[in-house]
Design goal:
The structure is a single chain. It is built from five helices and seven strands. It is of the alpha/beta class. It has one domain: Rossmann fold (3-Layer(aba) Sandwich). Helix 1 packs parallel to helix 2 and helix 4 packs across helix 5. The radius of gyration is 24 Å and the shape is globular.
């Protein structure tokens, strides 16, 4: 190959390489912006839309006793309270800011007042692995993106045990999480829970390519 031909081939290869690199860079940038957009939607609107439907599916009468495990600032807790008339919505949390920014009982209390449901909301400081409630005290137990924060696996399974302990016969469970659902499902089966179902919550609760949210629902066996 002549010197001119060699130079032309080198230039062509560089051009192809640059084009490929530009395509990869563009794709990565597009994925990043799509991820950011979906994350912001999930945070600001998506999770509320999803949980509104989940709570609607429970077909609440209004007199239920509802427990929210790891309630945080009250996103799910307060939506549940809005569906109650004579019932009560109870939230329990350790109020750690490492789990959620601005996480404190005072913030959640203010949010309950702002939403007009303070009269039917109760807040407790407690560990999901050792709930400060009696057996069979609640009709419904919910949890959103909280149980996965408990270390290690045994601790998370203990939280599932506690959730079932405080459910009344025929009571219902709804847990949304980004990890551990397979283990929760196995534990619920061991516990004898009925109507155990798992489904993806789709793009409205999509936090990242590796952190999509799934919902597991079940019922405490009627006795």
């Amino acid at each position: 190959m002549s010197g001119a031909a060699t130079l032309l081939a080198s230039i062509t290869n560089v051009g192809v390489g640059n084009t490929a690199w530009a395509a990869v860079t563009f794709a990565a940038s597009a994925l990043m912006w799509i991820s950011v957009g979906l994350y912001l939607h999930t945070t600001r609107r998506g999770k509320f839309q999803v949980w509104s439907r989940v709570l609607d599916d429970l077909d609440l009468r209004g007199d239920e006793q509802i427990l929210d495990l790891g309630c945080g600032r009250g996103a799910v807790l307060l939506m549940a309270a809005q569906r109650l008339t004579t019932g009560r919505a109870v939230g329990v949390d350790l109020w750690r800011k490492v789990d959620q920014s601005g996480n404190s009982v005072e913030v959640t209390e203010r949010n309950a007042v702002a939403e007009g449901v303070a009269d039917r909301v109760e807040l407790y400081t407690g560990d999901m692995r050792e709930l400060p409630f009696s057996d069979a005290e609640f009709d419904v137990v919910v949890s959103s993106l909280a149980i996965h924060n408990i270390p290690p696996d045994a601790g998370r399974l203990k939280a599932i045990d506690e959730a079932m302990r405080v459910l009344r016969p025929g009571g219902r469970l709804a847990i949304a999480d980004i990890a551990g659902i397979r283990h929760y499902r196995r534990r619920l089966a061991e516990f004898g829970a009925t109507d155990v179902r798992v489904r993806s919550l789709g793009w409205r609760m999509w936090w990242a390519p590796w952190a999509h949210t799934r919902l597991i629902t079940a019922a405490e066996p009627a006795r």
